[in-house]
Amino acid sequence: MISTAKGRAYGFITLAVISGLAFTAHQRNNAGKAAQTQQKKTPLVMTAPVQLGTIVKSIEITGTAEAENTVNIVPKLDQRIAWMSLREGDPVRQGQLIVRLEAAEATDQLAAAQAEASVAEARLRDVLAGSRPQEIRSAKAALAQAEANYRQASRDLEHVKKLYGPTGIPEQQLQEAQSRYDAAAANVESARATVEDAETELSRLKKMLKIGGVSQEDVDKAQTRYHVSRSALASANSGLAGARSNLAHVKNLNVKVIPEQQIDGAEARHASARSALEAAGARLDLLKEGASSTQIAVAREQVRQARLKTDTVRTQSEYCVIKSPVNGIVTKLFLAEGDMAQVKQPIMSIAENARMIVKAALSDRDAFKVSPGRPAMVKIGGPDDEPLRLKVTRVYPAADPVTRLVPVEVALPGNVKVTQGAFVRVSLVMEKREDTVVIPADAVVQKPGGRSVVFVVKDGKVQARPIRQGIESKGRIEVISGVRPGEALVVRGQEMLKDGAMVKVKPQKKSPGSGMSGKMKGAAG
Q1: pLDDT tens profile 129-155
Q2: Tens-place pLDDT, residues 402-451
Q3: 239 within 8 A of 185, measured Cβ to Cβ
Q4: Interatomic CA distance for residues 282 and 269, integer angstroms
Q5: How many H helices and E strands in the chain?
């Protein structure tokens, strides 16, 4: 009995121990599960200290490289294009022959104008030199001849009037008429010989002038003698014609009565001789007095007009040769060789390559914020090329009527090589803040009502901070108020946070202004 009781006691004790151990294990298991549940409910976030930095807001636009100045080549006279070998894209240099117009007509006009100017200048020299002794002698001889002709004409008229009637002319009258005719013929031959001698001498002196054997004055004197001999020959021929007519008239009188028309002819010859006598006397008086101030002024004006005409025609001739006024590239051909060029129509356009610009366009909303001098980053070429730090040089006062955009220009430095028409990227700095709080845009959470909130970790808990934003650019935001430099800003895992929540922090090496984006792996919601 005693043994049976002891066995039961041992059974109860064993059962109690086993039950205690089981309860302890159950308690430990529940505590572990609670700890694991609590750990899963604590969000894991990444923070970075709030820092001061610089933020720039810019506008990215595209532009085209162009020449600052484009020249239209317009002819100055209407003429056909005789030669033009340039094509679009060909380079030209300043002063290079680019177009030649037909110039045959202009060349002929220039030669004629130069000849007229030479004659006017020679006439002026004669007027200024005054009357030469040989000219006066020639005029005296011409006057003496005119007097003799007048006396003879007077005698012939008187003779014809006496013969008017039924009687015939005596033999003596016929002999006298024949004698006068013979004398006049001899006078003509003598004058013709003198002319030939003077012409031969003048030709000889002109040849010697070309080789320097004589002076121009000697040639001028020979020229004067030649003209005087020609005048004498003309007078002798006139006298011979009168003597021949008179002889024929006298011979006719042997067979018929003198008609009334014979008297009329004699009177006409008498009047002509008198006019010639008066003209010869006036010319002699003029040569003795010399040229008047009016004559000199007229001669000078004739020279001036002739030279002016020559210069005008020469200028027109020069207009047929067109040269490039600038160094540049032919961008457009409006006419081709053989076309008719006109004064108001350009032949070609040349883009001057002395200075290149980038021309872009802005909306009117942005254009009013831009003025000359605003910084501009200009990128030419591939993505690896460094951008140029330049400035806006011009903002157009009006928008383009087609695109409704406002053109702006950025001048390129002279050492920058760029092809005209090349595509260029331009970044215009609109605003810039320095030493200001800058945070990643991803750190900002938008709350209902349009509020912007960020979370700051302090003592293991997060604080929701409403912020006032400034400039936003390239994934970064300027914070005007709401956070201070040095505070731990939640930059990852902030999407589902609530104010005052406990968090587990995984520090981040980069600053909040570095523009980090994306979600942290394993961040709790």
Answers
A1: 665 677 777 878 888 898 999 899 888
A2: 999 999 999 999 888 888 888 999 999 888 889 999 999 999 998 888 78
A3: no
A4: 20
A5: 8, 20
Highest mean pLDDT among 193-207, 232-246, 288-302, 477-491: 477-491
The CA distance from 112 to 235, in Å, is 33
What DSSP letter does each residue of 436-484 carry, written as one string?
EEEEEGGG-EEETTTEEEEEEEETTEEEEEE-EEEEEETTEEEEEES--
User: Quick one: 269 exposed, middle or buried, by C-beta within 10 A (0-12, 13-18, 19+)?
Assistant: buried
Is residue 330 within 8 A of residue 353, CB to CB? The reply is: no
**Look-up of token digits 């207009």:** 319
- Joined together, the tokens standing for residue 298 give 């007229």
Torsion, Cα 28 34 36 40, to 10 degrees, reads 180
Residue 363 tokens read as: 């909306």
Q: Which residue has the tokens 């945070």?
A: 439
Q: What are the structure tokens assigned to 435, written together?
A: 């030493």
- Which two structure tokens, joined as six digits, stand for 132? 């030469």
- Distance between CA atoms of residues 239 and 242, nearest Å: 5
Q: What's the burial of 136, exposed, middle or buried (CB within 10 Å: 0-12/13-18/19+)? A: middle
CB of 342 closer than 8 Å to CB of 360: no
Residue 301, amino acid: E
At 287, list the tokens: 């040569």
Three-state DSSP at 288 gives helix
Instruction: With CA atoms as reference, report the closest residue to 437 among 496, 472, 470, 479.
Output: 479
The edge-to-edge listing of strands for the beta sheet with 321-323 is: 321-323, 97-101, 79-83, 340-341
Q: Which residue has the tokens 């090496």?
A: 509
Residue at token pair 């001028």:
220
Q: What three-state secondary structure class fits 59? A: strand
Question: Residue 113 is encoded by which pair of tokens?
Answer: 């104008």
Q: Which of 326, 334, 279, 292 is nearest to 86 (CA)?
A: 334
Instruction: Read off the tokens for 511.
Output: 């600053």
Helix (H) or strand (E) holding 430: strand 423-440
pLDDT per residue as tens digits for the range 388-404: 999 999 999 999 889 99
The structure's pTM equals: 0.43
Asked if 412 and 426 touch (Cβ cutoff 8 Å), the reply is no
Nearest-Å Rg of the Cα atoms of the chain is 59
CB 71 within 8 A of CB 352: yes
Ramachandran angles phi, psi of 362, nearest 5°: -125, 155
Question: What's the gap between Cα 231 and its chain centre?
Answer: 60
Q: Which two tokens stand for residue 192?
A: 């013709």
User: In this structure, are residues 60 and 361 in contact, taking their beta carbons and an 8 Å threshold?
Assistant: no
pLDDT digits (tens, 9 = 90+) for 65-110: 888 888 999 999 999 999 998 999 899 999 999 999 998 887 888 8
Taking the C-alpha atoms of residue 461 and residue 39, their distance in angstroms, rounded to an integer, is 15
Handedness of CA 278, 282, 283, 288 (dihedral sign): positive
CB contact at 8 A, 262 and 228? no
Supply the DSSP symbol for 387: P
